[in-house]
Amino acid sequence: MWYLLAAALLSLLFFRPAAKPLLLVALALALWQQTLLWPGLLLLAVLALAALMRSHYAHHARLMPLLEAVLVAGAVALTLHLAPGFHNLPIVIKEQAGPLSAPFTFYYNLDKALVPFILLACLPTLVQAPASPPRSKLAWPALIAAIPALLLLATLAGGLRIEPHAPAWLGEFMLANLFFVSLAEEALFRAWLQQRLSQWLGRWPGLAIAALLFGLAHFAGGPLLIFFATLAGLVYGLAWQWSGRLWVATLIHFAFNLTHLLLFTYPVLQR
To answer: What is the model's pTM?
Structure first.
């Protein structure tokens, strides 16, 4: 089921006609395996109805913002694991990536993985939007170099230590982080939030506010994590703005997280 879900998300990015059939099969299997329970299925039915109404009543200007608010509220609830009816699969429970790393837990998250499908009903340009390419040829190399630079800066600030390792659950982490974390977060914070804010306020305010809200979403990790998550959000936001492609921002986000896991204490230094 999880591989089908990942295939549906990949299809959403590159071959959309296959995305919906793959998603429906994955959800049917999730229901059968009790990863998806009836309250969650009911919520998804309500969101699907809102998406259908949005596509059929696009000429009703007053109805569109209300339907988008319902869809976005659902996407936020799924992202924060607030919606009932989802029994996400635990993969690693309180294990250390290395001796200096704090204990770490992660799941295969069905609820969060559904966010890109929901937000696509709000913005047809969620996956591919008009780009604003940088003028300098050095911009993209500088953006990629910012990944290790931010991690080294966090190390100097005392939040991390250099600690290379390849844990036994690396493959599971890569699958979960690419499809069920990075893609979902980039769909919400960059492809929807930054794009909407840019439409209302302009490109640079949209980029800055989306990055700040992304940082604040990491409040549970404390002020240092909020600060560095905001800086990372600026990097992901530039990748989105320059490319107009959701997959590019997702890949930069995933590269940051993977570099963090492979070369530094993950998720933070154990105190």
So the answer is: 0.96
